[in-house]
# Entry
Amino acid sequence: MNAFVTRDGSGWMPQYLTAIDGTTCIGCGRCFKVCSREVMHLYGVDDAGEILGACDGEDDDFDGELNSMIMVVDHAGRCIGCGACARVCPKNCQTHVAADQVAP
# Structure
């Protein structure tokens, strides 16, 4: 029996966001905009592909090192498994794992 159910009692299996492929992500921010739980944030990336840190919304260019931005899962435990982020991602770069497969 499925431990997860909808309001009408139908079985449902949450799919938790566990990772985002930084080589595929274009940093568009669509997933961030639909996530009500702040599971992921934009991070700056330099020319060498090294992650510089979280972009805080100010004009932070990391001392001129900023080349691009990617989305990074930095609070995976907040994910409720709704799948909204996967539905809006144009690059299909996210990894989701069924709730019954995620280690406690």
